[in-house]
C-alpha cells in the first residue's frame, strides 16, 4: 500500500481540532491585552521576582576573598582613610565609599550585599526603559526578562563588588542619552532623565 507524501505528513503531524488551535491564541491575546493594559504592573512583578532571586542568591553564601578585601578596605576609621585605602586597589573608590557608609546598617554578609542587589535590580529597569525607547516594547520586555533572570547577572548582583553599581550607572546613562535623543524637546523628561544618572 502506497502512501502519498501528504498522508505521511498528516500521520507524523496530526492536525489539531479547532478548539485546540484557538486556545493558545486566546491565551496569547489575553496576555497581550493584560500587558498593554497594565504595563507598569507587569514590569513591577518581573522586577520584584528578579529582586527576590537576587536576595535569595545574596543570602545563600559566605564572602569570597575578593568581597572580603573590599569590606576590609571599607572598614577604615574615617572616610579619608577608607578613601586612601581604596586607592591601593585596581577598582575605583566609589563602591568602597558606599560600603563605608552602608556598614552603619549592619555587617552581615546579606546586609553588605544589598547595595549590589538594589543596583542590579535598578539595572534591569534601566535596560527595560532603554530597550523600549530604542527598539520598542517587545524588545524592552525581552531585555527585562533576560536581565532579571540571567544567572551571570544574578551572580554579579549578589556580590560585595562594584560590578552591579557599574552596570546600573552605565544603563542609566544610556537610557538618559537615548531618551534625550528620541525626545529632545521634552524639558521635564530631560531633567528627570539627567537626574536619574546622578
Q: Any low-confidence stretches, pLDDT <50, length ≥5?
A: 18-23
Radius of gyration based on Cα positions? 24 Å
Largest sheet: none
Q: Can you tell me the overall shape?
A: elongated
In short, what is this structure?
The protein is mainly α and 198 residues long. The chain has a domain at 39-62 and 105-197.
What does this structure look like?
- With 198 residues, this protein is mainly alpha-helical.
- The protein has a domain of 117 residues.
- Helices cover 77% and strands 0% of the residues.
- It is elongated, with a radius of gyration of 24 Å.
- The N and C termini lie far apart (76 Å).
Keywords, please?
single chain, 198 residues, mainly alpha, 11 helices, elongated
Write the layout of secondary structure elements.
Blueprint: H1 5-12, H2 18-37, H3 39-59, H4 65-74, H5 79-86, H6 94-102, H7 109-135, H8 137-149, H9 151-156, H10 163-182, H11 187-197
Amino acid at each position: 500500500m502506497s502512501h502519498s507524501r501528504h498522508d505521511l505528513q498528516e500521520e507524523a503531524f496530526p492536525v489539531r481540532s479547532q478548539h485546540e488551535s484557538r486556545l493558545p491564541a486566546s491565551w496569547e491575546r489575553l496576555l497581550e491585552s493584560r500587558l498593554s493594559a497594565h504595563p507598569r504592573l507587569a514590569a513591577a512583578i518581573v522586577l520584584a521576582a528578579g529582586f527576590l532571586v537576587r536576595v535569595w542568591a545574596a543570602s545563600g553564601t559566605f564572602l569570597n576573598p575578593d568581597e572580603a578585601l573590599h569590606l576590609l578596605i571599607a572598614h577604615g576609621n574615617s572616610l579619608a582613610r577608607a578613601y586612601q585605602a581604596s586607592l591601593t586597589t585596581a577598582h575605583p573608590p566609589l563602591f568602597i565609599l558606599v560600603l563605608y557608609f552602608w556598614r552603619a546598617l549592619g555587617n552581615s554578609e546579606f546586609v553588605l550585599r544589598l547595595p549590589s542587589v538594589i543596583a542590579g535590580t535598578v539595572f534591569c529597569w534601566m535596560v527595560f526603559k532603554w530597550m523600549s525607547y530604542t527598539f520598542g516594547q517587545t524588545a524592552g520586555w525581552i531585555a527585562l526578562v533576560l536581565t532579571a533572570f540571567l544567572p551571570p547577572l544574578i551572580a554579579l548582583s549578589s556580590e560585595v563588588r562594584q560590578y552591579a553599581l557599574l552596570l546600573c550607572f552605565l544603563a542609566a546613562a544610556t537610557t538618559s542619552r537615548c531618551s534625550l535623543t528620541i525626545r529632545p524637546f521634552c524639558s521635564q523628561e530631560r531633567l528627570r532623565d539627567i537626574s536619574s544618572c546622578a
